[in-house]
Structures are given as C-alpha cells and as structure tokens.
Amino acid sequence: MTNERKHLARTLFQLKVLKAEGFAFEQLFGQVMEYSRPEFLKIKPYGNQGDRGNDGYEKALGRYFQVFAPESPTTSKSAAIAKVAEDFEDKLLPYWGTFCVPREYIFVFNDKYHGTNFNIEETLAGIKTKHNLEACDVFLSKHLEQEFICLPEDQICMIVGGLPTWDSMEGLDYTVLGEVIRHIQDCPPENAPTGKKIAPDFDEKIEFNELAEYGPWLRVKQRETWQIDDYLSRNSDFTKQALRDFLAGYYAESLAAVQSDQSGAGVTLGDLRFAFVLNRIAPQSNNAAADRLRRDAALVLMAKYFEACDIFEEPNNVTS
Hints:
- By secondary structure, the chain is α/β, with parallel strands linked by helices.
- It is 52% helix and 7% strand.
- The protein folds into two domains: 158 residues, Restriction Endonuclease (3-Layer(aba) Sandwich); 133 residues, no CATH class.
- Strand 4, helix 4 and strand 5 form a beta-alpha-beta unit.
C-alpha cells in the first residue's frame, strides 16, 4: 500500500472517529482491534447486565479495555473520570475479576484528537496503585489510528469502506504534509509557549551549510516549531515518520538536482538546495496570497526538521 493511499485512508478513518459516538465508536474500536490483535475478544452487551465494564479484552494478558465515547470530549471531563473508576471497581472487578484477574486496564477515550487531561491521568494512576496493576493507561483516538494504519490494505478498506483513486481526486491535498501545513496556518498566535530557545548548534549548522539567504528565516521560524510539536502530539506515530520521510526525500532530491557548479554570483549551494526543498513543499500556484501563507508555513516545517538534522548536513568540525 503506497504512502499516498495510506494518507487518504488515514483521513477517512479520522472522519469516522470524529463522527462516531457511543455505540458507533465501540463498534469501530472493536473492528480495528479484532483485525489488529488476533487475541482480542470483543464483548457483546447482554440484556440488563451490559458488558460488566469490559468492552473487550486480551484474556491471556489480563488486559481489559473499556470504551468511553462522549458527544463532546472537552465538556465531558467529569463523566469520563466517574466512568473510569466506576467501570473498573463496581463492574469489572466483581464479575470478570473472579476468573480472569486484571493485570492491565485500558480506558479507551474517544477524545476526537483533543488529548487526555490531568484528572483522567490522575484517576488512572490511582487505580493502578490501589489494585497493583501492571498498567493502567488511557487509549486515545491517535492510538486507535496507529492500530488501524498498520493493518493490511484489504482490512483498511473494510473499515473505511474502500478508497477512491488519486486520478479522481486531482488537485486535492490529502497528504500528511498538506495537513500539517494547514495546522500551522490555523494555529492561534496566543497559543505560542514562552521561552522557546534555539539549539546551541543551530547557527553553526546554518553556517556549515552556507545558508546565507535562508539562515535568518530559519532562526525566526525555529521559534514557531511548537506548532508542529502540537500537531504531532495529537496524531499517531505514522504522521511523524511520514513527515520525516517527505522532508528527507525532498532533501535527497535537492542533492541530485543542484550540483556544486550551479552556485555562484553571490548565491550559495546551500541556498539553492534550500530553495529547491521549499519549492517542493510549497510549489507556486496562481494564487499569490495563498502561496505566501503556504511558504510561510513550509519555512516553519523546514526549521523543525533542520534543527532535528533530518535535512541538510551536520557540521563535521563540532568540538565538545
């Protein structure tokens, strides 16, 4: 399955997660987990007894999953906290615990990519300590996405209902790269953390790679890379690797496309290669205003992966 089809499948899956509430999300969770983990057993509620606090488990591991999928996760904090403790102590332990002792308790929370919160984490930590569990963790939308994206293509298509061809979607950007750029553009400036520091060897790397024109841009945009950190914290590991692959691939292309004999007349080889990568991330269109916004976001992305040493070369004369 190509990366492009994975990007598209991931987008369709996220739409299902955002739309799913209550029983619909339980069904989605169960379907993914049954495909992803052969030992996972989905529990069907029975009459007035319900599921006794267990939506599914891996019996041999003593690992239990309980699902909570509210309509609005950001305004249902107290309900989530109450469900964590109630389902484990009042439902699961008195019934399932009599023949399959819980060693791990996983609270599946459809946070709709907003993240967990202090109170849920505190409650889970308390349950872990009180009942001497090996693990007691929250399982978020991004974790379910990670299980989904690692499935074979036929199972992925079964979950999202098939994938359209790229030919039928010409002009639309459903890649992780396009998604993170839209996230950067949408981040409110007031959310920026204070005290962002530049890595000690950042300027040395700029000088080593001869980024005379683009070096100042990297210094400025490095202070905005928190926007990418925010994006990555809300998404699965697949997005981190996909972004790294995009940037590293574009840089590799620049090494082949821009040779040393092309520099001159005040333009360095480093700047030419930087411009090549920038144009690959944010190619020009017929909309100048949109191009400026996309290139501005692309510079933030390049600053992030320049600092992480995924693009351009590390100085080979660094001394400790």
